[in-house]
Each structure stands twice: as C-alpha cells, then as structure tokens.
Amino acid sequence: MDSNTESGTEQGTRLNKYLASCGMGARRACDELIQSGQVIVNGKVCQTPATRVTEEDHVKIDGRRVLPRDIAAIVLNKPRGYVCSKEDEHQRETIYNLLPPKLRHLNHVGRLDRESEGIIILTNDGDFSQELSHPKKKTEKEYLVTVNQSFDNEVLDRFLKGIYTPEGKAVAKATQRLSARRFTITLETGLKRQIRMMCRACHLQVTKLVRIRIGTFTARGLEQGRYRHLDEEDILALKTNPAKTQGRTLPSTRRKPAARKGTKKRAQTQRSSSKHSSSSKSSQGLRSTKRSPKSYKKRR
Predict the structure, then answer these.
(1) Nearest to 74 by CA among 129, 143, 13
(2) Which domain holds residue 95?
(3) What is the structure's pLDDT at 265?
(4) Whose CA is closest to 81, among 99, 94, 90, 91?
(5) Which residues have CB under 8 Å from 15's CB, separation 6+?
(6) Which string of b and e fits 116-155 if b means at least 16 CB within 10 Å?
(7) Could you report the per-residue pLDDT of 35-89, keeping only the tens digit for each?
(8) What local confidence, expressed as pLDDT, does residue 300 receive?
(9) Do 61 and 104 lie in a common domain?
(10) pLDDT attached to residue 135
C-alpha cells in the first residue's frame, strides 16, 4: 500500500484520528480497531494508526466505506442511572439513549459513573477531546459532593495532601466546605471513581456526586437529561481554568521571620519598663486597700 507514512510525506490525517472523525469511537478505540486488522485502506489491511489518509483514500470497516462527519460538540447534563457507553453488556440505559440518532456518533470526553450526575462533553473532534482529557493539560473539573455523615475539616486537608488508593495517589487541587455533609472538590487529573475512593478512605460514603464545572464552563440552566450544542465561547471556557481556584488551603508551615537587630532589645526594655510600672501600681493599690483590724472584724 502506498501510504503517506511510507512515502515520508505529512499530508492527510492520521488514520486513528480520521476514524474518530468518522464517528468510529475515541482514538484509543480506533487504535484497537486498526491493530486488530479490521481496517482496510485502498483494498489492503492497515494496522498502523500513524498511517496518513485523506478523503480520497478508500477506508473501510466491515466492508463499508467510512467518511468524516461534520465536527460537532455538545454538552449533556447527565442524570443518575445512565452509563457512559454506546452499548452496555448488562443492558443498562446509556447516555446515548438521551440523544437523537443523528448525535449518537459523538464520543464522550471522559466519563461519569452510573450513579454520578452533571455535565459531560461529547464530540467527534479528536483534538478537542484530547485537549480536555489529557493529564498534561490539567483541565479543572469541579464536583459537588454530599456524604452520609458530618466530618471534620481535617478530611478536606487529607484530600489536598493526597490519599493512596488502589488506582494510585489521589489528590485534590482545591476543596470548599459548604455544610456539615456537603463540599466541593476540584480535580486536575482523575482516577477511576476517585472521589468515591477518597471519601471511602476517610470512612465516608458518597450519597450524591455532581460535576458542576469543567474549566470555567458550568452549563447553568441546562436541565437534567437535556443537551445543547457548544459555541466558540463555550469551547474557550472549557479549555480555560479559573485565574485562581477558590477552596480550603493547608496550614502554612513557614517560619516566622527573625526580628531585626535592636528590635528585640527595645522589646525587652519595654517589657521591663511595663513590668516595673505594673509592680509599682500593684503595691500602691495594696496599700490603699489595707483595712484596720477593727473594720475587718465588722465585716466578719
């Protein structure tokens, strides 16, 4: 096959990105399709994700030619009880049941577990998806959490320091207490079921978990189970973190600055003078309140 990769040119699009733009899945899923030998390019099996193709090339999967679709991006306010998957082996409802057929080719960016709620982005733009989900980008995601019982503020400090879980070390960028059982937590990178595992490590059970922000984007006013298309302003907000994330901070461990020379001596002189003055006043007060034996007896 005379691929652009083999000829050394950089024309066209990488095959895995091309398939993603055709609605065949996220890039990782497209890599698996290619490496398993299911992709035919110009009549030959291609197992190299880096192969570059154009719309003039004939790319087929299961005997059917696939072509890129128009770029689209939407936000969905996910309700509880839906899984982030196009198909579920347990026949549970998926987020794609909430979308019209014309949008079911979009891929979800990241995921929320079945019991979690809130905003989730879906798109067929592989670069945009990578920009939001890649750990190096450190895109903030904020969650509103309700737990089954009240807790000490030290729990939030532990989240900031980091908690070791079976998936690795889980660290929060920021936390903010809202009430006895509610708080917000901001993450830059997310492990699988990270917030639930962090709470479990502190003997807390999450009863409600809602993603409320990605970058500076909040999708306020979007009802549960509904979606809307994203505009350029929304996409910019998704890519941009707040200038300063609000939340609980750890106690400062910095030492107090050393006193300047002469300051310490002046302070000692002032304390000595104050002590002398206090002693003088105290002795005067004692002399003025001394009573005669006669008056003392009367009081008794």
Answers:
(1) 129
(2) 73-239
(3) 53
(4) 94
(5) 30, 34, 39, 41, 46, 48, 49, 50, 51, 52, 53, 59
(6) bbbbbbbbbbbebbbbbbeeeeebbbbbbbebeeebeeeb
(7) 999 999 999 999 999 999 998 999 999 899 998 888 899 999 999 999 999 888 8
(8) 37
(9) no
(10) 85
Residue percentage of the chain with pLDDT more than 70: 78
Residue ending a domain, among 220, 239, 258, is: 239
Q: Give just the sign of the alpha carbon dihedral 260, 264, 267, 269.
A: negative
Maximum C-alpha span of the chain: 124
Contacts (Cβ under 8 Å, ≥6 apart) of 95: 76, 78, 82, 83, 84, 85, 108, 120, 122
Q: Given this model, what pLDDT does residue 253 score?
A: 44
Tokens of 179: 């009430």
Mean pLDDT computed over 149-169: 93
Are residues 61 and 87 both part of a single domain?
no
Bridge partners of 53?
Answer: 13
